[in-house]
Specification:
By secondary structure, the chain is an alpha/beta fold. The protein has 17 helices and 13 strands. Helices cover 45% and strands 15% of the residues.
């Protein structure tokens, strides 16, 4: 078999055979197929697309390119969640303890932030003592004992995706539904859970900018997961506006704790209840109403917060920080951004706001940069709210004093303030099963 012929076949719009797809993934992972041929094939896939059969074989080949986590000891109770990435998205910190408190088994591998979007690993590492790397037997025995563990993605999970994603990033081939589907679903399949909820973000802060594109991606991922024997649900959620009020690692942990303690209501809690109830609906085969009732009850009774403390404590985290979030160190510098005019906030460019948090130190500008856990933004006004000239729009936190002025300017540029109240946007666009 020759890579040249595979590229030519896809270039001409034909479907690749199972063997051809596996030949490509094996050869590329092992370094036998060079980057230039792999990028030519990615570009051909970008323009020609793939059939469902091709996507499912590609996903399976990528999933098998490295370690496959075996969660069979948890039967049908294993549960996982994936977000396509957003700003202020701390839902895993809330959803996973809710479902674990209700009896699901959460053995979750999670990632670091990239670009303007945050990552759960960085948020968890802002809790002093939290051990993100556990040896695999300890990881699984913690799940057996207390129902939940979240660790960083193991070094050898889906190496094909690691190589391909880096290549796509520099060859303008990220934004292709077959390639995104296989990238995300290969990681989920390798991570082993039987029940998977996908949070497909849609809007200015997300990868998919329109509900139509989000739905097309969601449908593909759900169908591939089902073909591979998993129970799947995708929830299309709004990412035109950052989720909740806090952006930045320790700030997001504090907000997640406030939701788990019942001190904070609003969009964040609402999205978490929808994600958690869709996950336990699959795990326990419940009606949508019963699943929602149980998820809300786990929050309101304090069971989910108790589970979070048990989990963080088991992984070495200092749970005094959860009882009293004021213990988290605050950034040396802070400033408020005030509205120059009176009016309604009509739009927030969530991606730009995510970039402001990176400027403040909350994210990485390069892959190996270190993160300032105390940096970030607290939003005081969001889309739809009225502001008067001089009123505070947000507070910026950083240890880089020189970044403040620029960050404030960029924050203001990310907002559209006008005379009329905007039409309310849905928080949940659709659920795909
Ligand atoms: N997230 C991923 O993991 N892969 C993609 O291709 C896009 C988003």
């Amino acid at each position: 078999m020759r890579m040249y012929d595979i590229i030519e076949k896809k270039r001409d719009g034909c479907a690749l055979s199972d063997e051809e797809i596996r030949f490509f993934i094996d050869g590329y992972t092992n370094g036998v197929i060079p980057d230039y041929q792999a990028s030519a094939l990615c570009m051909a896939i970008f323009f020609r697309g793939m059939t469902d059969r091709e996507i499912s074989v590609l996903t399976d080949a990528m999933a098998r390119s490295g370690d496959m986590i075996d969660l069979s000891r948890f039967g049908t109770l294993s549960a996982d969640k994936h977000s396509t990435g957003g700003v202020g998205d701390k839902t895993s910190l809330i959803v996973m303890p809710i479902v674990a408190a209700l009896g699901a088994k959460v053995a979750k591998m999670t990632g670091r932030g990239l670009g303007h979007t945050g990552g759960t690993v960085d948020k968890l590492e802002s809790i002093p003592g939290y051990q993100i790397a556990l040896e695999s037997e300890r990881f699984l025995s913690q799940v057996e004992e207390i129902g939940i563990s979240l660790v960083g993605q193991s070094g050898n999970l889906t190496p094909a995706d690691k190589k391909l994603y880096a290549l796509r990033d520099v060859t303008a081939t990220v934004n292709s539904i077959p390639l995104i589907t296989s990238s995300i679903m290969s990681k989920k399949l390798a991570a082993g859970a039987k029940n998977i909820v996908l949070d497909v973000k849609v809007g200015s802060g997300a990868f998919m900018k329109t509900p139509e594109d989000g739905k097309a991606l969601a449908e593909k991922m759900v169908s591939i997961g089902k073909l591979c024997g998993r129970n799947m649900t995708a929830v299309l959620t709004n990412m035109d506006v950052p989720l909740g009020h806090n952006i930045g690692n320790a700030l997001e942990v504090q907000e997640a704790v406030a939701v788990l303690k019942g001190e904070s209501r609003g969009d964040l809690r609402e999205v978490c209840v929808v994600l958690a109830s869709n996950l336990i609906r699959m795990v326990f085969d419940l009606t949508a109403e019963e699943a929602q009732r149980r998820a809300v009850d786990a929050l309101d009774s304090g069971a989910a917060f108790a589970k979070m403390k048990e989990w963080i404590g088991a992984q070495g985290g200092d749970i005094r920080y959860l009882d009293d979030p004021f213990l988290f160190p605050t950034a040396a510098f802070s400033d408020t951004v005030k509205s120059p005019v009176s009016g309604y906030i009509q739009k927030m460019d969530a991606e730009r706001i995510g970039t402001v948090s990176v400027m403040l130190g909350a994210g990485r500008e390069t892959k190996d940069a270190t993160i300032d856990y105390s940096a970030g933004i607290i939003l005081r006004k969001k889309v739809g709210e009225r502001v008067e000239a001089g009123e505070i729009l947000c507070t910026l936190y950083t240890n880089r004093e020189a970044a403040l002025a620029d960050a404030a300017e960029h924050y203001l540029a990310a907002l559209t303030i006008g005379d009329t109240a905007p039409e309310a946007q849905p928080l949940i666009y659709e659920i795909v099963r």
